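Notes from the pairing session

We agreed to fold both candidates in a single pass and log them together. This is the raw record for the first candidate, unedited. Please don't reformat it; downstream parsing expects exactly this layout.

Candidate A
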Amino acid sequence: MKKIGIMGGTFDPIHVGHLMIAEAVWDEYNLEKVIFIPSANPPHKHDVLTSAKHRFNMTLLATCSNPHFEVSTIEMDRVGPSYTIDTIKALKKMYGDDTDFYFIIGADCIHELPTWHKIDELLKICKFIATKRPSYEFDLSIIEKEFSDYNIQLLETPELEISSTDIRQRIKKGYSIQYITTEQVQQYIRKEELYL
């Protein structure tokens, strides 16, 4: 069986935390690759997002030097809300039955899973890897109570307090974002005058 990781998110903008987590999961689970999927119209996000085109371009720039990272427009190409179940079903058609998909999610987002569209069906066709920082306390029984047939594994990843929100706020205030995201992404943000 082939094993492919899925890193979904708004990536507004992508930062080194995303990249480190994807690399850690790729390594730990011996994945063939990790596909980054910028969401076009995420049902759980109510903030105004930077255009999908910009977010895709930044994700591409951040990942292009890594041979086992890939970026997909699968959610941007689809109209309507970006439901993960639809994305995984489409990927299964593309890759065939001999591929297992591992959806990478932050452990702090696990409590939101019961609200996800068709989550029970999703857990049957896709494994979840919940990444947690060493200092983050997480009770796995939350998952066991919510889902009888859960398919979620926990993985400790490096401690990094970085968020896309922080990056946007730093840019607005005129602060440096050096070392928080890649040099290529920083150049793109400056060139396109994003987050000002």
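Candidate B (folded immediately after A)
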Amino acid sequence: MSITVTVSDMSCDGCEEIVENAVSEVNGVESVEADSDAETVTVEGSDDVEAIMEAIDFAGYSPSRESTEGDEEDADTTGADEDEA
């Protein structure tokens, strides 16, 4: 499973390293890649979004949203439901 979190307050390689180290401590995380230019943190392995968001917050950064593989399908289903309503 892949989870991507937006973290807009990372500004350098050091920020990326701090976030990656914090998230790597979350149980089940196999890999983590922070990208300050894209303002994202991508996590493989763990599906514990709350723990990932808490780790980022504890590291001193502000996670603002998350998405997982398959969110697009959920969004399409939600859009279809709204059209029917």
